[in-house]
Amino acid sequence: MLKEKIAQLLGEVSGLQANDAAELENLRIKYLSKKGIVNELMAAFRDVPAEEKRAIGIQLNELKSALQNKLAELREALATQEDDHSDLDLTRTPYPVSLGTRHPLSIVKNEIIDIFSRLGFSMADGPEVEDDWHVFSSMNFAEDHPARDMQDTFFVEQHPDIVLRTHTSSVQSRVMEHAEPPIRVICPGRVYRNEAISARAHCFFHQVEGLYIDKDVSFTDLKQVLLTFAREMFGPETKIRLRPSYFPFTEPSAEMDISCNICGGKGCSFCKHTGWVEILGCGMVDPNVLEANGIDSKVYKGYAFGMGVERITNLKYQVKDLRLFSENDVRFLDEFMAAN
Ligand code: DAH
What separation in Å is there between the alpha carbon of 47 and the centre of ligand 1? Predict the structure, then answer.
């Protein structure tokens, strides 16, 4: 009886079919699960008379492995069916690949670096979390200078001596304390000031500092380098003018304007109808700064300048709201695709 049942089942194995994973699972449950047919047969096998046990045992094992093999084969067939890409439409228009763009501030920063490297400047770097010495004292700021005020400077809590640098001039000091003149470096980097965020002010922005120290450095050298920079950056027609100013770390100090590159100097709302826009501060390195940083001011002289990268980017690309630079709105960033 059992023998015939097993033989019949063995005959059915090769014809088993499964069209999907659910059907396959049903077959497994029907034949091979705990309560499946094979286990039922195993239970019945216990009552088989001793002389038949061997033959039926072999037959039963044969059925079990035939079922296992068949189900594995069906599983395999289903898996390759899923991998079959024959319904792929290779003529369909592909999804657009959206490429990233370089950030406008990086584009402009790289351009500034390029121009000054052609003029022989190398790059220097310093920390954004800096000590009072490098940001202020070594730069000839008086003890009670208003820039040290809580209103302008972010202090690190419980460390009154540690601040977020308010300008990249701190890197001047970092460079001077290690290098021997001649020194000719530019230092790009992020700076922080305790300002309320608006279209025209932000609590962080970017600067590029420049420093040149050698034996015979004059204000004329400074002016020539800045004129070359302005023309390379804003076009050969660009004019510059220097206005006397004050910075603790330079003497004499000046602020540099360029002829407004938006109206060509004729006067527009961007230059407040003056024809000029300010782009940087500069001057001859104050001898106190050289001495504070271990450089003999009787032998060496220097010039320095510092410019805001946002300011120059605004002039080049007329970005009206500073907040756009840090919001990472893709619609804004995509506008710079062509400049990359
Ligand atoms: N550190 C100044 C600022 O943050 C910019 C500056 C002015 C840098 C004159 C200089 C300089 O090196 O000579 O406003």
Answer: 101
pLDDT at residue 145, rounded to an integer: 84
- Whether residue 250 has its Cβ less than 6 Å from ligand 1: yes
Residue 90 has pLDDT above 70, yes or no: yes
Centre of ligand 1 to C-alpha 25, Å, is 75
- Ligand 1 mean position, distance from CA 264 (Å): 26
Residue 318, burial from CB neighbour count under 10 angstroms (0-12, 13-18, 19+): exposed
247 lines ligand 1 (CB under 6 A): yes
Same domain, 141 and 63: no
Residue 272: left if φ>0, alpha if ψ -120 to 50, beta else—which one?
A: left
Query: Is residue 28 located within the same domain as residue 151?
Result: no
Distance 320 CA to ligand 1 centre (A): 23
Task: Let me know if residue 9 belongs to a domain.
Answer: yes
Domain residues for 120? 104-339
Q: Is residue 96 domain-resident?
A: no
Count of other CB atoms within 10 angstroms of residue 228: 15
For residue 122, is pLDDT > 80?
yes
Asked whether residue 94 is domain-assigned, the answer is no
Q: Is the pLDDT of residue 92 over 70?
A: yes
For residue 179, count other CB atoms closer than 10 A to its CB.
Answer: 16
Say if ligand 1 is within 6 A of residue 24 CB. no
48's CB contacts (< 8 A; 6+ apart) are 2, 56
Number of domains in the chain: 2
Which residue did the predictor score with more confidence, 144 or 230? 230
**Residues 186 and 133 occupy one common structural domain:** yes
Condensed to tens digits (0 to 9), the pLDDT of residues 245-269 reads 999 999 999 999 999 988 888 999 8
Ligand 1 atom nearest the C-alpha of 172 is 12
pTM: 0.74
